[in-house]
Amino acid sequence: MSNDLGAGRRASTATPAQARDDARGRAGTAVEAMPYLPPSSSPHVPDGVDPGDLVWAETVAGPGYAHATLARGSRIRLEDVTGDACAHVVLVSALQRSERLNVADTQKIPWQAYLGAGHPLLSGDGRVLATVVADAADGRHDAFCGVTTLASNHARYGAGEAHSATPAGRELLRLAAAKEGLAPRDIPPSVSFFKGVRVGADGALEWTGGAGAGAAVELVAEVPLTVLIANAAHPLDPDDRYRTGPLRVHAWAAAASSPADPWWTATPERARAYLNTQQHLLARGIR
């Protein structure tokens, strides 16, 4: 028998009993990209957060995907570990799954196309699903381009399937959605964090890149919320390589925003959106 590691592994899993023992022997193994269970065991707990308050802790591979359904008031922190992550995010109301992120209203209602602190992420029903409450990424985000597709990645990289080396963002979102009981038709256009796009004077989209290692953004869930994330290359990334890096995700029990927060009354349209959300929750007995 060969002494190489590969051969050893094949021999150790030749029977169900050996496969069971091999799997049990890997318990406790830590790798760069993994969910931390329980969340309080995360080695990267955000500053000022009690580990016991964490409800979701995960490092998402680059490329990779993640998903969770969270309570209203959950605070969600996304961190670009190496400067190469791109978090394509889709939000779906857990109260009414036909209500999803609408990027057009997310730009239109605040009269602001560029995401940053205080920016509401709206549904097509004029309600706020989440608010960007902190931005340490220099506004390097995008609400214009969405994600790459299977066809576009095949044309550019030669493959775009979810389990290929160059998966399309759309394919990863489909997997995340399926794990939450959602179908491909339930996936609207996403917003993207950590890779920036601006509109030039001539109307063309201009790539502004990322903010570097350690950039972070925090959202607060204004309603019970299903979060889908694809960590995949941005459609406008000019690098010929398929470049992605790890993305850290933490969420913890906190509180939804309130009329005391400045973004509630920053414009009449924002105030209406938050009041619409409040009424929607009150009608369901949620305060």
Outline the structure in words.
Helices cover 20% and strands 26% of the residues. It is α+β, with helices and mostly antiparallel strands and 287 residues long. The chain has one domain. The radius of gyration is 20 Å and the shape is globular. The N terminus is likely disordered.
Order of helices and strands: HHEEEEEHEEEHHEEEEEEH
Q: Strand share of the residues?
A: 25-35%
| Helical stretch tally | 6
Q: What's the gyration radius in Å? A: 20 Å
* Average pLDDT: 93
Q: State the low-pLDDT regions, or none.
A: 1-9
Largest sheet: 7 strands, antiparallel
Percent helix range: 10-25%
Global geometry = globular
The class by helix and strand makeup works out as alpha+beta
Task: State the distance separating the first and last CA atoms.
Answer: 66 Å
Strand order of the largest sheet: 1-2-14-4-12-7-6
**How many domains make up the coordinates?**
1
Number of strands: 14
